[in-house]
UniProtKB/TrEMBL annotation:
Full protein name: Protein-export membrane protein SecF
Source taxon at top rank: Bacteria
Family in the record: Belongs to the SecD/SecF family. SecF subfamily.
Sorted UniProt keywords: Cell membrane, Membrane, Protein transport, Translocation, Transmembrane, Transmembrane helix, Transport
């Protein structure tokens, strides 16, 4: 009874013809990624304080907050364009202030806002204050982009040295498409682009690269094992053979991220929801994007070692 797993997501003898949808998968992926790039510039990502600079104040009122009254009170403090919104519950607010120039100006703006909200809603407490200047935010933004670029370069070199160039091209191209889709999801859902979401994107890149390496490794094994099998059939076979492992790993990570998204609070929810979206995108791209790219780029080269079929002797 214990000699075999008690539960399999898909049967061991599954033989789905994934490559019948190879062209459709690439077209849909290209459309979604192109739309995501356009959305990244217009309307653009919602940058967090890490990359935009400014002041964030988290406050808690004695009871349900009167937002119109508090907005009027904070606007009257003359500290610039101020945003006030609920943060997790009706008695918890997030107040955003623009950059004030120097440390003295920042402290003065915080004191003005604190006085205004305490006057409008006596008993209100300031839970935390975060301030990031323009120079620091620019450096953090540049550092985040450099981290993303280096991760792609590392994945390219790793896959290129471990596999043939066709796999490297497929892996890096698919990771780029996955990342652009995640950025599009951030724009559509309003998830802030900050250091936390950069960490989520880097984690997604690592997980998706590992998922694709597993499929690529099985393809390479089958290329040696089945010398005459057509490449399209071999790609389908490799995906089916690793399907249980791929789905099992993805579901395990989803079950880890979902509670964090639901109960981790507003600070971690963006990270967790982006992780969930990235897992779904990466799992599907291993089948419908990376594999078709290998199929099309390796149609004439991955079979170069195929032995010639002996000709029948002439009578």
């Amino acid at each position: 009874m214990l000699s075999r797993p008690l539960f399999r997501i898909v049967p061991d003898n599954t033989r789905i013809r994934f490559m019948k949808g190879a062209v459709a998968g690439l077209i849909v992926s290209a459309i979604l990624s192109s739309a995501s790039v356009i959305l990244a510039f217009y309307p653009g990502l919602e940058r967090g304080i890490d990359f935009k600079g400014g002041i964030v104040m988290e406050v808690r009122t004695p009871g349900p907050a009167d937002l119109p009254r508090l907005r009027s009170a904070v606007s009257a403090a003359n500290v610039g364009d101020v945003g006030v919104q609920e943060f997790g519950s009706r008695d918890q607010l997030l107040i955003r202030l623009p950059v004030q120039g120097d440390e003295a100006g920042t402290q003065q703006a915080v004191n003005r806002v604190r006085g205004a909200i305490e006057e409008a809603s006596p008993g209100t407490r300031v839970l935390r204050v975060e301030a990031v200047g323009n120079r620091v935010s620019a450096e953090l933004f540049r550092g985040g982009l450099i981290a993303l670029g280096l991760s792609f370069l590392a994945m390219l070199l790793y896959i290129w040295f471990r596999f043939e160039w066709q796999f490297a091209v497929a892996g890096v191209a698919t990771l780029l498409l996955d990342t652009t889709k995640c950025i599009g999801i951030m724009v559509v859902t309003g998830i802030e682009f900050n250091l936390t979401t950069v960490a989520a994107i880097l984690t997604i890149i690592g997980f998706n690269a590992n998922d694709k390496v597993v499929v690529f490794d099985r393809m390479r094994e089958n290329l040696r094992k089945y010398k005459t099998m057509p490449l399209r059939d071999l790609v389908d076979l490799s995906i089916n053979e690793t399907l249980n492992r791929t789905l099992g790993t993805s579901v395990t990570l989803l079950l880890t991220a979902l509670p964090l998204a639901l109960f981790g609070g507003d600070t971690l929810s963006g990270f967790a929801w982006l992780m969930i979206a990235g897992i779904i995108v990466g799992t599907s791209s291993s089948t419908f994007i990376a594999a078709p790219i290998v199929l099309f780029t390796g149609a004439k080269t991955l079979r170069r070692d195929t032995p010639a079929v002996p000709q029948a002797a002439a009578p």
